[in-house]
Write the structure tokens for this entry.
Amino acid sequence: MRRKTKRSNLETLFGVSKIPYTEQIKHIVDDIEPGAVAGVFEEGLKTADEQGGLKDYRVLDGGVLIPLDGVWYHWSERIHCDHCLRRRKDGKTLYYHSMLGTAIVRTGSNVVLPLMPEYIRNEDGSEKQDCERNAAKRYLEERGAGLARLKPTFLGDDVYACHGICSRIRDRGMSYIFTCKDESHRWIAGPVAWGEFESYKRRERNGRNHLEYRYRWANGLENRCEEERMPVNYLAVELWNEEKQKITYKNSWIRDKELGKDTVEQIAESGRARWKYRERVQQCVEEPWI
């Protein structure tokens, strides 16, 4: 805009006459603690709610969908700090910064409402590296009470389908739909392999393709962590393509609330909605510098 009109939005909206260089921006923001900008997200959410912007995002039981997703936003083999996470690859150390990103999403739309993230980083004096699960637990402890009014259902991949996170969500009166892989949930994989399921099929035509959605579900399975047990409900879906004569999509989830023929389609669609946030992150996050 500056090249075309001699003025930019930075000048017209904020009165900044000269755009700072990237290095200067980094120098300024490096010392700002992430929590200092939490109010911006809270105010944005409050305004959206007051203006009726949240009503279209309310789906399951009148609540909203909030995906939890770990996102890298910087990595390098040279540049690093005390808070960097580390990973060994091909005999080299890769340093990176990550965060647990959250947003309010909805099915059928790529428009997301961002929420304050939880940063995944090593703290001073910490001997054990931080991780997504620990960040999710902190997020629920610190922000769970404030989000409860939205009646959220949290979405996430298999890493979140553990007792520690599911119990924290349940104890706060909230819900979850987490991907559940057989290889990492052996207490669920057994009943899934030989148990009896309810099932339902739906056919539709998409262009030249004839598709069949196959749903299988069971209520009252156990998700275990050592001696602790938690009842969960299991849903699996497959998409059969008649023209290609093969399954083109399949997934499975655990859910805290009971499943039935009248809800499985909406639950599966909601579980897949977490990719809306991932798509927006990939579009918005700049390529990290090396």
Remarks:
- The radius of gyration is 22 Å.
- The CA atoms of residues 112 and 277 lie 7 Å apart.
- DSSP finds nine helices and ten strands in the chain.
- The longest helix spans residues 132-147.
